[in-house]
Amino acid sequence: DAKTTQPPSMDCAEGRAANLPCNHSTISGNEYVYWYRQIHSQGPQYIIHGLKNNETNEMASLIITEDRKSSTLILPHATLRDTAVYYCIVRAPGTASKLTFGTGTRLQVTL
Amino acid sequence: DTEVTQTPKHLVMGMTNKKSLKCEQHMGHRAMYWYKQKAKKPPELMFVYSYEKLSINESVPSRFSPECPNSSLLNLHLHALQPEDSALYLCASSQVGSEAFFGQGTRLTVV
């Protein structure tokens, strides 16, 4: 699976959009980009995933660049409850392949 | 039901004890995973089961022994652990190749 690079930490004011970047320059053509988050001492929570088109669900939006070498997770109106570590993961489809976590971005949402 | 249930939530065991961690899901998922997470580190993959067969073992020491008795249940048998094995143990499940759902983990302390 391709390696990902994320900034170690980011701050965001409550109510503003949080834009979390991820670099995955060695991604293969069939690999998906997944985003998870982990709130302190809880299990990771699935947020969203995509292949090449932009995706949106009730939690977030995922923007993948045309060359697929990077992506951005957007939380449109961050709240204090969005404070967590956010992980960007690249994963091959099909078989029960590895879901390998990198070091992630610690997002701190403040008043 | 989108829940992965792990028991117990907390476990303290001696280095000579034998104990088991249990993970259960009723989402019809055919892939199940064990992860280990040390404090302030990302989750590390230990084992992957696909259709009740072990498909990935990330060179985990034999004192950790996984078992998948049926499609809903995943166990992790522990024997002769060391204090450095103290960690949060996370279970996850997914449709094969799809997003994984995590349990809340078992916090293990080896004394």
Can you tell me about this structure?
Chain A has 111 residues and is an all-beta fold. In chain A, the strands form two sheets. A five-stranded mixed β-sheet of chain A has the order 1-9-8-3-4, with no helix packed on it. In chain A, strands 2-7-6-5 form a four-stranded antiparallel β-sheet, with no helix packed on it. The mean pLDDT of chain A is 93. Chain B is an all-beta fold. Chain B has no helices and eleven strands. At the A-B interface, strand 4 of A face strand 5, strand 9 and strand 10 of B.
Name the quaternary structure.
heterodimer
Radius of gyration over C-alpha positions of chain B, nearest whole angstrom = 13 Å
How far is the N terminus from the C terminus of chain B? Answer: 36 Å
Number of strands of chain B: 11
Class from helix and strand fractions of chain A: mainly beta
User: Mean of residue pLDDT of chain B?
Assistant: 95
In DSSP terms (H or I, runs of 4 or more residues), the helix count of chain A works out at 0
Flag low-confidence runs of chain A.
none
Taken in chain order, the helices and strands of chain A follow as EEEEEEEEE
Order of helices and strands of chain B: EEEEEEEEEEE
Distance between the termini of chain A: 38 Å
Structural class of chain B: mainly beta
Strand order of the largest sheet of chain A: 1-9-8-3-4
Mean pLDDT of chain A: 93
Report the principal-axis shape of chain A: globular
Main sheet makeup of chain B: 7 strands, mixed
Report low-confidence residues of chain B grouped into runs of 5 or more.
none
Largest sheet of chain A: 5 strands, mixed
Question: Strand portion of chain A, in percent?
Answer: over 45%
Rg over CA atoms of chain A: 13 Å
